[in-house]
């Protein structure tokens, strides 16, 4: 297991936007952290009231927004208009091309979200949009599947062999996950504190795990975590499947 510490991530502060970059992104470049398996981006963003990203294009990427706090207004070239809130997950297949905007819908409250990019299984897919709400009860002290390749268990579907689980751990409660031999995992602490295999993790910390491992989690303080079950690191040729 490899620890990616929160404080070692790339950081930018534009005044209206504070963002921590797990992997190389725009002005932040670290050749040791370009991607992991098919996971390309995890940006931990805080957006000031009424501020956001104007219309901008994306192509050939599966884009996931995991809302932690506040309300985000989304509009896109597919005709979708939506306000997503804490507990919501949004997926967008950029495929052959999509243009969208994202703005904090509140004049007083900040937005906190994780924006995640995953390489798709092939290029030039038909663009699409979906969203769903996952309740605290669905995530409390259990793994809740929020995104998958096949849309099982009411999860959002993407075009890649990835299962994304979320959990909110009560303080002192334990939860386990067993990773198969031919898989990798990326475990991200979205908020709070937790212990994983005896190692204390705080908000923004993450673990990279390769093959046949058991992850033993313990809630320490208001912990919310995301677990990406991914193709084994080093085995995927991006866009060559």
Task: Describe the protein's architecture and organization.
The protein has a single domain (9-231), classed as Jelly Rolls (Sandwich), CATH 2.60.120. The two termini are 27 Å apart. The model has no long low-confidence stretch (mean pLDDT 97). By secondary structure, the chain is mostly beta strands. The chain has one helix at 136-139; strands at residues 2-4, 10-13, 17-21, 39-47, 52-58, 62-69, 71-76, 81-85, 88-93, 98-104, 111-118, 128-133, 144-148, 156-157, 163-169, 174-178, 183-196, 199-202, 206-210, 214-231. It is built from one helix and 20 strands. The chain is globular. The strands form three sheets. Strands 1, 13, 14, 15, 16, 17, 18, 19 and 20 form a nine-stranded mixed β-sheet that branches. It has a seven-stranded antiparallel β-sheet with strand order 2-3-4-11-6-9-12, with no helix packed on it.
Protein traits:
9-stranded mixed β-sheet; 7-stranded antiparallel β-sheet; 1 helix; mainly beta; single chain; 241 residues; 2% helix; Jelly Rolls
């Amino acid at each position: 297991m490899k620890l990616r510490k929160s404080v070692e991530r790339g950081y930018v502060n534009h005044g209206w936007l504070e963002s921590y970059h797990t992997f190389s992104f725009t002005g932040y470049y670290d050749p040791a952290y370009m991607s992991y398996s098919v996971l390309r981006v995890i940006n931990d963003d805080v957006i000031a009231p009424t501020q956001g990203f104007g219309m901008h294009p994306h192509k050939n990427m599966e884009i996931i927004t995991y809302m932690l706090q506040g309300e985000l207004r989304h509009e896109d070239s597919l005709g979708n208009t939506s306000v997503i809130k804490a507990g919501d997950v949004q997926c967008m297949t950029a495929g052959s091309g999509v243009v969208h905007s994202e703005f904090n819908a509140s004049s007083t409250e900040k937005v906190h979200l994780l924006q995640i990019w995953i390489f798709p299984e092939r290029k030039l897919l038909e663009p699409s949009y979906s969203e769903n709400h996952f309740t605290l009860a669905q995530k409390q002290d259990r793994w809740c599947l929020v995104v998958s390749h096949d849309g099982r268990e009411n999860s959002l579907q993407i075009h890649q062999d990835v299962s994304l689980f979320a959990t909110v751990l009560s303080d002192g409660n334990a939860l386990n996950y067993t990773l198969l031999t031919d898989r990798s995992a990326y475990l991200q602490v979205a908020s709070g504190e937790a212990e994983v295999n005896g190692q204390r993790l705080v908000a923004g910390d993450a673990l990279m795990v390769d093959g046949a491992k058991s992850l033993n989690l313990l809630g320490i303080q208001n912990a919310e975590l995301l677990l990406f079950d991914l193709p084994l690191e080093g085995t995927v040729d991006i866009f060559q499947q």
